[in-house]
Amino acid sequence: MRVLRRFSQVAVFLVFVFLFLNTEYKDNDVLPYAVNVFLRMDPLVAGAAALAGRAVIKLLWPAAVVAGVTLLFGRFFCGWVCPMGAILDFADATIFRKIKRRAKLPANLPRLKYFILFFLAASSLFTLQMVFLFDPISILIRSLTLSVFPGINMAINSLFDALYFTNIHAITKFSEPVFSFLKNHFLAFEQPQFRLAALVGSIFLLIIAAEYFQKRFWCRNLCPLGALLGLLGRFGLTRRRVGDSCISCGKCERDCRMGAIGNDFKAANRSECIECLDCRSICPEDAVHFVGRDKPELLPMDVGRRGVLTSLAVGAVAVPIFLSEGYRKVSDPSLIRPPGALAEDKFLDRCTRCGECMRVCTANGLQPALFEAGLAGLWSPILVPRMGYCEFNCTLCGQVCPTGAIKRLSPHEKRKTKLGLAEFDRSRCIPWKGESNCIVCEEHCPTPEKAIKLREEQVTTLSGEIIKIKRPYVDENLCVGCGICENKCPLTGHPGIKCTSRGESRAQGAELLTTDEG
Amino acid sequence: MNRRNFLKTATIAGAGAVIAPSFMDEAYAFGGPLVSMAKGTPPARITRAAVDALGGMGAFVRKGDVVVVKPNIGWDRNPAQAADTNPDVVTEVIRMCLDAGAGKVKVFDRTCNDARRCYENSGIGPAVESIKDPRVELSFVDERRYRMVDIPAGRLIRRWPIYEDVLNADKFINVPVAKHHSAALLTMGMKNVLGVIGSNRAVLHREINDALPDLNRVVKSHLTIIDATRILVANGPQGGRLQDVRRTKTVIASADVVAADTVAATLFGKTPREVRYLQLAQDAGLGVADINKIRIKKIS
Asked: Lowest mean pLDDT: which of A103-117, A487-501, B11-25, B270-284?
């Protein structure tokens, strides 16, 4: 049976990797796979987004299925499906195989995950969605997107570049075909680069490193998704049953990766057991069975009323503090959201910072926010035009968003959606300074009637010479704020044209479009 | 084709003879460079007709030659929007090269939008891939393959990185689409060369009229085939609005890139004198920009 579980973990993980690698433009404007399905079947993400956003999100129906199956069969998800769990089990079987775990951890540490869950539930209820900090699927995809994958990509590229530049035919003859095979199937089309990559990656690393203390340290003690599934699965139909042939050797108790088995080796904590079936496989007397409908031998859930109330209260109190942050008073002009993003509050209610939109962004323009949207907006996607612009005809971010924080737009709607507006910095722009013509922004402007207009003007240069120069202006009715002008501006340092969120389509209040006064 | 052959043919055919690029000097003797201008449909047919009028692809591509065919694949636009070279023109050029015995035909462009989107949506990617011939190599630009090239006679550029495959090729066939461009006025063959250079090419737009002759000194087009099946007359070079597209149903070919561009400019109602880089290119001895000195062979 254990073999079956391992097979499931490996198979699901391979599907996960396949979908991750295909979260990318591959000559198709519509992604052929539901690449975001792992997030959409996450009841924690679904619950928080629905609670905070006060909406039933149809996209998240797979989460209802997982919740339903968990009600019936217990917390199997963690043992059989969860890709984060699979990675931790793999780490145990390899990196930590020889580790002797001596540290005695407090027995009530597993409570922590319930406290985290209750904290998240309370804050979500009062419309502050903080699930992104702790949801394992979001953490995993975010880490892979922002740091692991770019890192692997960088390493492999550097290796093959080094071989390439040896200029030794005997080497490149072999290395180049291998490289192009990797490029076609596994590597990114262009090296992805993200702000905060190392920070996000180190959190993932810490989760793995915690295996040093305990098997599945994260799942046992911290994971709020595990806690939620544990609560749901507590009354499931399958039960661990220990027969009379048990010789009380204690092997199962020592070996249990979740610490779910009681001191008598018989009772098990249903909220902790992830049905990995290891105890069944290793029992020397073949005494352990998992059966349906039987007299439950449940260990009581040991959370404590005080802890529950405290965590709920902290969650509730956190909300007004976060909402009164200064960032919310004056919106940061560089807070440029992806096309189709909901209005800011609704957006943050739903966005789980999974990084799918950043992963799929064709030009690598979507980047994790630091404080642009306040601390509660940490790692949410913003367009950083100097790093990458928004492709005019691309609609992929709306296709991969699991919670509908970014709406799915038709190509036609997308081309009409304003992310913001471009404005010239006349103290930087080459023609505005009177140096010479340039037109690079105008050339790249993608609107069918260009939003950047040129007007030939007579200019007196610093040396007193009178010349004619084509000076660029932004037509704010046409500009969609895609940022390609800022991205391609040939100036190093500050660009001569900059995009801000001013005039964005999703703005809800009154908005006045000013013309760029000449 | 060698000198004797050429002279023989030229003598027989008289002034309207076939002109190969290596015989530019002789060509002048017969009254300037030859530019063919084929009008009609479909695009593939007039492409072939334009090249045939110059003596066929065999006059340019020798057996075993490594040929670079350089279309404009710069933008994420579809063929009807006329921002990229018509895929039927591109594939016909490739087929002619293959028929002439080319050892390898390389096709690529350094794009402005995401390269995958440009290759796919221009139709050029799928069209070239549909030619099932192992000698055809469609690739994205590889950042490692630029080589610094000195331009000793350059007015603006002293040196610039150029794509190695172009430098190493036996023949460079320039296959642009003719479009409006707000800096260069028009973008055709000479401007298409910007797709095979590296580094921050945006800075060249400041002095584009000087930059283009400089670059064309070191990137020599052995044959220029201008796609004017559709031309973009405003909001170029990216377009996107069908009302800016004119169906001129023309393909222009010449061994002289300056002359080809000069003739193409007339389709926009521009006098070549207005396109300053063509005049500067002529001054630099890169070709002929004087429409009266160009022999135009019209085919319909």
From this structure: B11-25
Is A489 in Cβ contact with B116 (below 8 Å)?
no
Which residue in A165, A362, A438 is closest to B114 by CB distance? A362
- Residue B22 scores a pLDDT above 50: no
Average pLDDT over chain A reads 92
Q: What secondary structure letter does DSSP report for A89?
A: H
Q: Assign domain B32-299 to its CATH superfamily.
A: LarA, N-terminal domain (3.40.50.11440)
Q: Does B123 touch chain A (CB under 8 A)?
A: no
Using alpha carbons only, give the angle A212, A216, A219 rounded to the nearest 5 degrees: 135
- The mean per-residue pLDDT over the stretch B141-159 comes to 95
- CA A66-A68-A69 angle, to 5 degrees, is 65
Please check the confidence at residue B9 and state whether its pLDDT lies above 60.
no
Residue A22, domain member (yes or no): yes
Q: Tally C-beta pairs within 8 A across A and B.
A: 78
- Return the residue matching tokens 């610094």: B148
Kindly state whether residue A503 falls inside one of the protein's structural domains: yes
CATH label of the domain that carries residue A499: 3.30.70.20
Secondary structure class of B298 (helix, strand, coil): strand
Q: Is it the case that residue A91 has pLDDT exceeding 50?
A: yes
- What's the CA dihedral at B254, B32, B153, B179 to 10 degrees? -40
The alpha-carbon gap from A141 to the nearest alpha carbon of chain B, in Å, equals 24
Tell me what the mean pLDDT of segment A229-243 comes to: 87
End-to-end distance of chain A based on CA atoms, in angstroms?
A: 75
> Using a CB-CB distance cutoff of 8 angstroms, which residues of chain B are in contact with residue A435?
206
Contact B240 A363 (CB under 8 A): no
pLDDT at A104: 84
Where are chain B's structural domains? 1-30, 32-299
Name the band, by pLDDT with cuts 50, 70 and 90, for residue A330. Answer: confident
Cβ distance A74 to A291 under 8 Å?
A: no
Q: Count of domains in chain A?
A: 2
Chain A residues near residue B112 by CB distance under 8 angstroms: 443-444, 488
Over residues B173-200, mean pLDDT: 96
Interchain pair B235, A161: CB under 8 A? no
For residue A478, the surrounding DSSP H or E stretch is: none
**Boundaries of domain holding A237:** 2-146+201-292
Lowest mean pLDDT among A289-298, A399-408, B137-146: A289-298
Best residue in B205, B209, B210 for a mutation probing chain A (most A CBs within 10 Å): B205
What is each CA distance from B9 to A74, A487, B24, B68, in whole angstroms?
A: 89, 54, 15, 27
Pairwise pLDDT comparison (A454 vs B11), residue with the higher score? A454
Confidence label for A392 from pLDDT (cuts 50, 70 and 90): very high
Give the amino acid at A377.
G
> Looking at A292, A324, A355, which one is the last position of a domain?
A292
Could you say which of A232, A264, A292 is where a domain stops?
Answer: A292
Test B206 with A449 for CB contact under 8 angstroms.
Answer: no
| Residues linked to residue A421 through DSSP beta bridges, in sequence order | A500
Assess contact for B263 and B35: CB atoms under 8 A: yes
> What does the alpha-carbon distance between residue B23 and residue A473 come to, in Å, rounded to a whole number?
48
Q: Which residue of A440, A471, A491 is the best one to mutate when testing the B interface, meaning the one whose CB has the most B CBs within 10 A?
A: A440
**How many C-beta atoms surround the C-beta of residue A28 within 10 A?**
10
Residues of A with CB under 8 A from a CB of B: 25-27, 161, 164-165, 189, 362-363, 391-394, 430, 435-440, 442-450, 454, 470, 488-490
- Residue A423 host element (H or E): strand A421-424
Contact A450 B235 (CB under 8 A): yes
Q: How far is B167 from chain A (nearest CA, A)?
A: 17
For residue A448, being part of any structural domain is answered with yes
* A511 in any annotated domain: yes
Q: Are B112 and A439 a contacting pair at CB < 8 A?
A: no
